[in-house]
Amino acid sequence: MTIQLKDIRYTYPDTPGKLILNINNWKVAAGEQVFVHGPSGGGKSTLLNLLSGMLQADTGEVSVMGQRLDKISSRQRDRFRADHIGYIFQQFNLIPYLDAIDNIKLAHQFAKENTSSSLEDEIKSLLSSFYIDPADWQKPVAKLSIGQQQRIAIARAMVNKPELLIADEPTSSLDQNNRDNFMKELMAMVSEHNTTLLFVSHDMSLAKHFNRIDALADINIAGAVN
Amino acid sequence: MFFRLAFKSLLNRKGSVLLTILAMSVSIFVLLGVEHIRTQTKESFNSTVSGVDLIVGARTGSLNLLLYSVFRIGSPTNNIDWETYQAITTNSKVAWAIPISLGDSHKGYRVMGTSTDYFKYFSYGNKRQLDFAEGKPFSDLLDVVLGSEVARKLGYSLGDKIVLAHGLGKTSFSLHDDRPFKITGILATTGTPVDQTVHISLQGIEAIHIDWQQGVRMPGSNITTDQLESVTLQPKTITAFMLGLNSRMATFRVQRDINNYRQEPLSAILPGVALSELWQMMGILENTLRLISGLILIAALLGLSAMMLSSIREREHEIHLLRVIGAPPTYLFLLIEMEAILISLFSLIIALSGLSLSLLLSGDFLVSSFGLQMSFTLFSGNHLLFMLLVIGATIIAAALPSFFAYKNAKLSR
User: What is the pLDDT, as a whole number, of residue A111?
Assistant: First the structure.
């Protein structure tokens, strides 16, 4: 199992009376491509932060790749995230003043094996596979188009060959054409590496790309109540 | 990658960063400048005279006597009778004596009448004796020996003739142009006021003033140089004299005897003690200058801290992204500290370059106005310590914004 959540309860410290997540049992098997949809305020981001180890549940078990995230220290969770989890957001996926190569190198820096001598070559090959023109590799990413930035974001998320890739509404700032290209390249990449994909969006037209579709309201009882 | 990220992050905010660097540079410039001038002044003053046991002049304060006799700063209150000089120097405890007669100048450089013992016994720095770069001491009545700076600045060489002026002004209308002096020697550079001095014999001083009264030449006087050679030119007074004693043990005894000399009110001072008094007096000024420059640095560091703090607020997405890719909160803390250190290092480089350039440009002014020879070497142990202190203070000033970045990173979600 790549993801296993059991009896999860989560409330924000500043609103202790309001339950944000209440998940009894939810699992994702290795290699699954899961589309999670739900309305804003349903606890999507909180769920993803819990899975990446950025947040800790008040109670319950969070297990990712067999590792109990609720049992390890904050420093260990940071390291675990760098080694095993890739993350793509809707925007702000990259450090705007760094170029594409440096952005990807930076993501590699925090992973376990960060002394690869062929890293530069790997990054270049990764960027080529996402159709990023070599002329753009050394430009600050802020000067590239949103479509290019999102493709570099996939490359950045995949550089450490993560077992789990979390995508949080990554297509919502893209136009139709860029969105289709993005999805095509993303799905090809996760299939090639047999990466488990957890894709969260409210855009149901994307559901066709996935082999499993979950409604957030079914996973999170608290969200359904709210 | 860590260093690269910090550097590029600063480049990305070049406007505010540049202003902060400028503010820091100015404050470090002031701090290091004050420290450099302070240490160099001390070194320069301390190395000006060595091996002299006592300096004797007309009754005055010890600092005044030291300043006009050794550093050519200020003016004497009175002269000493030649008989007094002779009486004191015949004392069995006195090994040697150097008479000093001041009051004339050449193009702003002071003329000092003395004896050839000056070239034999006067020493500076670590008991280094005067050397001749060219020529030899004066032997004839109208011979002159130039300090290295005088010769270099005015482009003089051996055999040239120069005219002395009455008084100390840079531009004088009372010239001793009837008796030009011939350059017979040029001294090697000493880095002391000797370099800015024109040396002639005491008899030379008498010769140029023989037909002068009250600062003007007497009308109708026409004594020729040949006639002067046949006259015994005995000085009537001198400004001061330096004494070397046979035994250091006798210093206080001789000093007391001179201070109690009945025939004429005199002051005898120990150069080292007078210098200590000078530093003691200067201490308050030094500390005030240090305090002011320290406060300027603190103000600049607070500016740096404020700039970094506001940048943290603008960089929440960046901090969140770094956290998501696995950066621990301590990485964010160190990143902000590194950015502050880089600002501090750039400021140090600019301040040091500016200071070197300023010293280079103001070197002549400092020498001619204050007799201070400044070294351009800014990498002494003291300065390195100051630079480390600046970096240390930067780390402390950046601790607050770094802590905010750390806290933001911890709460990032």
Answer: 81
Query: Min CA distance, B300 vs chain A (Å)?
Result: 27
pLDDT band at A226 (very low <50, low <70, confident <90, very high): very low
Q: Cα separation of A107 and A88, whole Å?
A: 12
ipTM attached to this prediction: 0.85
Mark A206-217 as b/e (b = at least 16 C-beta within 10 Å): beeebeeebebb
Q: Which residues of A touch B317 (CB under 8 A)?
A: 92
Residue contact A54–B412, C-beta within 8 A: yes
Beta carbons within 10 angstroms of residue B164's beta carbon:
24
Q: Is A172 helix (H, G, I), strand (E, B) or coil?
A: coil
Read off the DSSP letter of residue B140: S
Measured at the CA of B407, the angle between CA B405 and CA B412, to 5 degrees, comes to: 90
Token readout for B38 is 């302070």
List chain A residues with CB under 8 Å of B331. Answer: 110
Counted across chains A and B, CB pairs separated by less than 8 A come out at 64
Q: What is the CATH number of domain A32-56+67-213?
A: 3.40.50.300
Which of B8, B320, B329 faces A98 most closely, judged by CB atoms? B8
Q: Which candidate, B271, B260, B305, places its Cα nearest to that of B397?
A: B305
Per-residue pLDDT at B294 exceeds 80:
yes
Q: What share of chain B is helix, strand, coil (3-state, %, to 5)?
A: 55, 15, 25
Q: Can you tell me the distance from the alpha carbon of A210 to that of B60, in angstroms, rounded to the nearest whole number?
A: 102
Q: Locate A38 and state its tokens.
A: 């739900």
What's the pTM value of the predicted model, to 2 decimals? 0.73
Residue B363 is predicted with a pLDDT of: 73
What is the pLDDT of chain B when averaged over all its residues? Answer: 85
Nearest of B309, B303, B337, B277 to residue B5 by alpha carbon: B337
Question: In B, which residues are within 8 Å of A111 by CB distance?
Answer: 326
